[in-house]
Design a protein that fits this description.
- The chain is mostly helical.
- The protein has a single domain, classed as Tetracycline Repressor, domain 2, CATH 1.10.357.
- The chain is built from ten helices and no strands.
- Helix 5 crosses helix 6 and helix 7 crosses helix 8.
- The two termini are about 30 Å apart.
- The relative contact order is 0.12.
């Protein structure tokens, strides 16, 4: 489903396309799914779960929240560079083109990412409180840039966005100096993982 959505788009993907790609008989498909919509939602769930697991692995407790955020972002973008179909399914199809149930899964994953980024409030600089929507704004802007690269079929460029994205994600919480330090660290991780 994710590959077909990436190649054709969700609206243009048919059950016949899925049967041809998988070699399943229609009876086998019907045994697992009542409709194409149900199959689409089922395809979104493991992609979002994998993304949340990647993010969870980055937050280990042995690094600061900001460095964990950097590792999570780099891990996600590397994964989406490897499998742009999964990135597109998670960030575009599930939120715009698929049934409401797929959007609800996307929204749940987005809420988890916001909560993780919001943990940077504990490292807030000079005691200044970041605006309430800082994490949501940073993630929304980052997501728009990632979706653009996926839509333009430039997924291989995604990891190169990490320095800019980490800067914009953490600057409201940590200030410019620490955000620039993390951006430099991100650049070094791109070349020396």
């Amino acid at each position: 489903m994710s590959r077909s959505c990436y190649e054709r788009g969700y609206a243009e993907t048919t059950i016949e396309d899925l049967l041809q790609a998988t070699g399943l008989e229609r009876s086998e498909f019907d045994r697992h799914f009542r409709s194409q919509e149900e199959c689409g939602v089922a395809a979104v769930e493991p992609v979002l779960a994998e993304g949340i697991a990647l993010v969870g692995e980055a937050f280990t407790g042995d690094t600061s929240e900001a460095e964990s955020t950097l590792r999570a972002l780099l891990g996600l973008l590397r994964r989406f560079a490897e499998r742009p179909d999964k990135g597109s399914l998670a960030l575009t199809d599930s939120r715009q083109r698929m049934p409401r149930a797929a959007y609800e899964r996307y929204a749940g994953g987005f809420a988890i990412l916001i909560a993780m980024l919001d943990r940077l409030r504990s490292e807030s600089f000079l005691g200044v409180e970041a605006p309430p929507c800082a994490a949501k704004a940073a993630l929304g802007g980052s997501e728009a840039l990632i979706r653009r690269e996926l839509a333009m079929r430039r997924a291989e460029n995604l990891p190169a966005l990490v320095p800019d994205l980490i800067y914009s994600a953490v600057v409201p919480f940590l200030g410019q100096e620490d955000a620039l330090r993390l951006a430099r660290q991100a650049r070094s991780l791109l070349y020396f993982p």
